Amino acid sequence: MAYKERVESDELKIFRILNNHMTLPSKEKQIYSNLEKGYKGEVMFDQITEGLDKSKFLILNDLLLETNSTTFQIDSSIISQENFLPCEVKNFEGDYYYKSDHFYVMNDNEIQSPLDQIKRSDTLLRQLFQKKKHSISIKSNVFFVNPAFTLYQAPLDKPIIYPTQLNKFFDELNAKSSILKDNHYELANILVKEHKTLSPYTRLPPYNYAQLKKGLCCGLCHSLKVSSDGTILVCHSCGCVESVEDGILRSVRELQLLFPNIIITTNLIFEWCKVIESRKQIRRILKKNYEACRRGKYTYYE
Ligand SMILES: [Zn+2]
Measured in angstroms, how far is the CA atom of residue 62 from the centroid of ligand 1? Predict the structure, then answer.
């Protein structure tokens, strides 16, 4: 297990729910698709770093740090005896080319250089370490994790690890001797404490309850083609089966993420889930899992 685990961001979760219940505008659809792809790549990367000897390395996944009022993100960090290894993980797919310090997609569209990205975060990280009075050498790398990624005219002298080199890189790292001392744990704890969370709501499109398509989503493939026989939910897209109770509770959490101030009532969940025919069943499940509060004539759940 990593010293700091990666969790899905609320932003990604909300985008995913919105994508199921409305048609995202094209700009937001692009942001959502990049988030989903990036997260997938990071999870792929985590599976590789999981294989590192935890008595020799500390792994901190997904740090959002701030120094001198500038925030920067490190997808994954590995602390060894000698080095601090920030890892910039890229899940690019398809053909790209490199030309005089710039990265391009094959159609000549330039993309932000991952090398510039690590240069920037290295500088900020160094400042942060200085402030916290920690000195450890920083060795950043860009990791391209997608096996379907090709970089033409790839430079030989840059800190880039290509998909075909991932296993070798980590096998060699794992074979090195590394003795962790108190100061390594101290540094890890400082970074975990410094980790910030951004508001998940800044890049989302505007949305409101009335405009959203109602229906209970499949917990696995997110399709709205779900039916209920009273006890279980069946997804007609992927065949996944879930208990009605789990599905309803998941839907409640979705609504609360979309609308943090929403008041949960039986009628609201009945309308939102759409496929549950019995209001009684919804009331029973809400009562069992939440605290029932009364305001005048109606009951809501917290
Ligand atoms: Zn499904």
Answer: 29
What does the pLDDT look like over 151-203, one tens digit per residue?
A: 999 999 999 999 999 999 999 999 999 999 999 999 999 999 999 988 888 89
Angle, in degrees to the nearest 10, between helices 266-273 and 279-289: 120
Which residues place a Cβ less than 5 A from the ion ligand 1?
218, 220-221, 223, 235, 237-238, 240
Helix or strand or coil: residue 62?
A: strand
Distance (Å) from CA 31 to ligand 1 centroid: 23
**CA dist 214 → 22, 40, 127, 217, 231 (Å):** 9, 27, 49, 9, 20
Q: The dihedral of CA 119, 120, 125, 130: what is its sign?
A: positive
DSSP string, 65-97: EEETTEEEEEEEEEE-SSEEEEEEEE---EEEE
Measure 124 CA to ligand 1 centroid, in angstroms.
Answer: 43
Cα 234 to ligand 1 centre (Å): 8
The stretches in the chain having pLDDT less than 50 are none
In this prediction, residue 104 carries a pLDDT of 97
> 143: CA distance to ligand 1 center in Å?
32
What is the model's pLDDT at position 295? Answer: 86
pLDDT in tens, 196-227: 988 888 899 999 999 999 999 999 999 999 99
pLDDT of residue 235: 96
Angle at which helices 10-21 and 26-49 cross, to 10°: 130
In whole angstroms, what is the distance from residue 251 CA to residue 259 CA?
12
In the reported structure, the alpha carbon of residue 8 is separated from the centroid of ligand 1 by a whole-number distance in angstroms of 19
Record the pTM.
0.90
The Å distance, Cα 242 to ligand 1 centre, comes to 10
**What is the rounded distance in angstroms from the CA atom of residue 214 to the CA atom of residue 16?**
15
pLDDT attached to residue 218: 94
CA of 274 to the centre of ligand 1 (A): 16
